[in-house]
Amino acid sequence: MGIICCKIASGIAAPQCGNCDEDHCPSFHIHHLTYRSVFMSTTRIRCYTLGIIMLLVLTPVLTGQVGISLAASPLEDLKIPIETVLSLLKDPVYKNPDQRQQQRDKILVITRKLFDFTEMSKRALARNWKSFSSLEQQQFADVFADHLSNSYMDKIQGEYKDETIIFLNQETVSDGKSLVKTKIQRQTKDIPVDYSMYSIDNQWRVYDVNIEGVSLIKNYRTQFDQILAKESPAQLIERLKKKVEVKIGN
After folding, report:
1. 38: region left, alpha or beta (phi > 0 left; psi from -120 to 50 alpha)
2. Model pTM?
3. Domain 41-216+233-249 = CATH 3.30.930.10
4. At 59, phi and psi to the nearest 5?
5. Which is nearest to 31 in space by CA: 51, 4, 60?
6. What is the mean pLDDT of residues 68-88?
7. Which residues, in sequence order, are CB contacts of 17 under 8 Å at separation 6+?
8. Where are the domains of the chain?
């Protein structure tokens, strides 16, 4: 399980903190990173899991008016990896437990091209990014990518339940940035999931995922702010490394 904030666990709203580089960042009351998991509601965990699964494995259904050509659009650059991962998950070869690691490795290659983990790292650290040396920035980006990947891969392989995904629209946020609005259709409720993407080297890549109004990156940012107020960048990196090692060991 990944790092979880108290707002997600309790649903209690918090005031604007003013400590980050972006507007409307809620100042969540957070738990420190520890070597053990922090529990949150089962429903919210599944929402986050489905949000990641949605991006990676589900066949997209486009509704509404996008307003621009799909060629070289955020939607188009999501569709190809989604369909590739979906074919991997459906491939009967990987039903064999001995082939699960090979399936996992192939999916990870795809996700690391789709998600820009360096950009996600910068945004998660916000103003603290500049206090990291160049080497520490690279180390943090690497271990943060490992942490995010390991937190969700087992769920991606085991929790796809044929939910329907609707792509509602894509909105231009600014030059080179777009927001893709979607929802997961389940029997009991619809779950809104928005993807923040930006264009780099003629490709659209994801830098944040927002599930039911809660930003994944802002969640991590408040936790990292709390830790870095007391510890060094090297200590934060070491914390994440230990979490990754524990996950691999399990």
Report:
1. beta
2. 0.69
3. no
4. -70, 125
5. 4
6. 72
7. 25, 26, 27, 222
8. 41-216+233-249
